[in-house]
């Protein structure tokens, strides 16, 4: 009597990805300072995104001392500012597979690098815009579309959009600096640091800190 082969072991399921459409709508709501009830309702419509929110807000890295059990609690504790920043990161990390690609990682590094340079150059006032420029700089590649099509549903200011599509202005030139650092193009880095009037030590420290931050993300 032949023995039957054992059935193959089930493959572990890949983590489910939240809806990118929902994330884009939420970013727009947060930029527009929409009513808390509208923001809460968007989370209710996407169970995976709701799970990710509660997991994030209760993670040890978040530093909260009590467990957060409701959407409204989570949104209130985080605040629109921090929630918006998390959603921006989540938009580029919400892939079908659980792996974080090199394109996504470079986008995260760029975002944090531009944010830190923005703080050093402008103070905190414009650092959030620079963070978005960096994180969204490869959004077309991540979503498998053109950059223009990827940015179309997002509510972005003209300066951010020009930086992303044309490398225009200080934001866009700082993005070029990040790209030159990635490419290890030292002459280009030296020229852009000089043109932007940024201290080289700030550039060096900011990029290293951005790499460390991207590696530590719980998302």
Describe the protein in words.
- It is a single chain.
- With 219 residues, the chain is an all-alpha fold.
- It is built from twelve helices and no strands.
- It has helices at 20-31, 36-44, 47-58, 71-93, 102-122, 127-135, 139-143, 147-151, 158-166, 169-182, 186-196, 200-216.
- The longest helix is centred in the middle third of the chain and has 23 residues, at 71-93.
- The radius of gyration is 20 Å and the shape is globular.
- Residues 1-15 have low confidence and may be disordered.
Provide key terms for this protein.
219 residues; mainly alpha; 2 domains
Compact description:
By secondary structure, this protein is mostly helical. It contains twelve helices and no strands.
What Rg is obtained from the alpha carbons, in whole angstroms?
Answer: 20 Å
Average of pLDDT: 80
How many discrete structural domains? 2
Q: How would you sum up the global shape? A: globular
Low-confidence segments: 1-15
Q: Give the strand content.
A: under 5%
Order of helices and strands: HHHHHHHHHHHH
Largest sheet: none
Helical content class: 55-70%
Number-wise, the strands total 0
Tell me the distance between the termini. 52 Å
| Number of helices, where a helix is a run of at least 4 consecutive DSSP H or I residues | 12
């Amino acid at each position: 009597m032949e023995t039957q082969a054992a059935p193959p072991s089930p493959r572990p399921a890949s983590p489910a990805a939240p809806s990118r459409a929902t994330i884009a709508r939420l970013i727009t709501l947060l930029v527009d300072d929409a009513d808390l009830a509208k923001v809460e309702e968007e989370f209710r419509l996407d169970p995976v995104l709701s799970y990710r929110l509660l997991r994030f807000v209760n993670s040890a890295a978040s530093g909260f001392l009590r467990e957060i059990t409701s959407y409204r609690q989570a949104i209130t504790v985080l605040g629109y500012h921090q929630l918006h920043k998390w959603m921006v990161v989540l938009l580029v990390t919400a892939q079908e597979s659980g792996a974080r690609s090199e394109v996504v990682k470079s986008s995260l590094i760029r975002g944090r690098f531009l944010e830190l340079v923005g703080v050093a150059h402008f103070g905190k006032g414009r650092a959030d815009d620079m963070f978005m420029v960096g994180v969204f700089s490869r959004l077309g590649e991540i979503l498998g579309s053109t950059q223009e099509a990827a940015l179309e549903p997002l509510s972005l200011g003209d300066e951010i959009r020009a930086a992303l599509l044309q490398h225009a202005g200080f934001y866009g030139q700082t993005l070029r600096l990040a790209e030159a650092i990635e490419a290890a193009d030292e002459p280009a880095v030296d020229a852009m640091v000089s043109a932007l009037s940024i201290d080289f030590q700030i550039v060096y420290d900011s990029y290293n800190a951005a790499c460390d931050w991207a590696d530590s993300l719980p998302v």
